[in-house]
Specification:
Elements lengths: L5 E4 L9 H16 L3 E4 L11 H14 L22 H13 L3 E4 L3 H13 L15 H9 L5 E4 L5 E6 L3 E6 L7 E3 L7 H11 L4 E5 L6 H11 L5 E5 L2 E2 L15 H6 L4 H10 L14 H7 L10 E2 L2 H14 L2 H14 L10 H14 L7 H6 L12 H8 L4 H13 L6 H15 L4 H12 L7 H26 L1
Helix pairs in contact: 1-10, 6-7, 9-11, 12-13, 13-19, 15-18, 16-18, 16-19, 17-19, 18-19
The protein binds one RNA strand of 77 nucleotides through helix 4, strand 6, helix 6, strand 11 and helix 11.
Length: about 500
Amino acid sequence: MSGTVRVRFAPSPTGFLHLGGARTALFNWAFARKHHGVFVLRIEDTDVARSTEESVGVILESLKWLGLFWDEGPEVGGPYGPYFQSQRLPLYREYAEKLRRAGFAYECFCTPEELKARKELVIAQGRSWRYDRKCLHLSERERQAFLEEGRKPVLRFRIPEGTTTFIDMLRGEVTFDNDELDDFVILKSDGMPTYNFACVVDDALMRITHVIRGDDHISNTPRQVLLYKALGFPCPEFAHVPMILGKDRTRLSKRHGSPSVTYYRDMGYLPEAMVNYLARLSWATGEEEKEIFTREEIIERFSLEQVTKHAAVFDLDKLNWMNSVYLREAHPERLRDILLDILKRHNVVRDEDCTPEFLEYCKKVVLLMRERVRYVAQILEDAAYFFKEAYEYDPQAVEAVLRDSGVPEILRVSFELLRDLTPFDAPTIEAAIRKEAEQRGVKAAQFIHPLRVAVSGKKVGPGLFELLEVLGRERVLARIARTLRFLGKE
RNA sequence: GCCCCCAUCGUCUAGCCAGGUUAGGACAUCGCCCUUUCAAGGCGACGGCAGCGGUUCAAAUCCGCUUGGGGGCGCCA
């Protein structure tokens, strides 16, 4: 190939950005960056019934969150715009008309109902259905009659005889018998183009050199190749990347948990972890035994030849692990802000609660918890006690550590000890508690475990002394007192 | 049903194209160590070439068939 590499990601705005779409976008982006090419974003909104503006917003937002910035497309423009298919209608009509005049396409007046009926009949006979070309040779009179009836025609592409072969960059030659393809619609009765047609016109006009998309498009490719030929456009290279499946090996969907990028953002996954994980699904670098890659490292190493051909199962465990790796490296302020967003969304705090002191507190909480969670929202799931004085006592923790008859005494002593301790920091607290335990001839653990349950309601969590420091004297004393009352009541 | 694609541990994969490896790594799981719990970390274990035929001195690697999985067959994209 000559000239600049130009690739595109072309989502249809009918919902959120799906992980599969995100991965396709990522491969396109990485390929473009690797080859110093151009990454185009095009919105395929020709389905007026399902496309929404909110969805466009969500998709752009998701892409930006992942750091997959496009060089041409919505918001940034470019020389081959517009980048919304709904704004390119005259173009499709022009090329459709060209095809019709040249005999590559013809009008069809069959209604969906008629087609359905004929299709069922054919299938009932055990044959496979292809459009029966009823309208291929309509006379002008028949055509007028249909028009007078008020029918609006669609335009169908006439599939030629023979076979169609294309080169897939991952698989090599793929051939289809044209008999398998039927005369598909290129212009709907409302004048909108269909996917295959708009896609080809746009890819050609936008000078796309490499079409990188999910392998569910393999069977569309021969139709598109035929269109390129009929239109006299040069064919781009094709690379069909494998799909992402759920645990049950079916297409990833809501049934497998949420497949939307924004869901993971909202749960407190980091975009660089997401990008890393998605890249590693279906792609590996060869001999190099390495899992963690920055965006730059992905770009440096990326190659379509190293993309696998088989579908990949989305493994939340591994994403979680990878995210936890990034969590430990992230800037505390960044994690704090993510935590704050989550707390607000769950109505745990309000905007006015976010004082400088509280921000500082959240930062400390994040620093303490980030090694024990896999995503930021897990802090709220596992350690809501940081934000709620009315935290609950885990029955098992109560049973296992607070039941001992010596516990109230231990808590009372601790209360006294901590009330006057300065400074109220982890080393000082630790020294004091260990000393007290030693003087009483008991293990430090005799203090540590009851205190942890007392201030958090749980028997697992951060190191006790750090936990006490972060909670601060005021909360700690109040919580010990609360636990004493709780035990007294029982 | 028809067509297309695919096939290495439970999962993601290296190795395959240029046959000869104790088939490597990561996640998960399970042990042990460390330790105030959890987590992290260290060490270790478990676990795989879908099956059958060929070609070959030699097959995870090349070929064929079977089986299994996925995708498509819209006036959706």
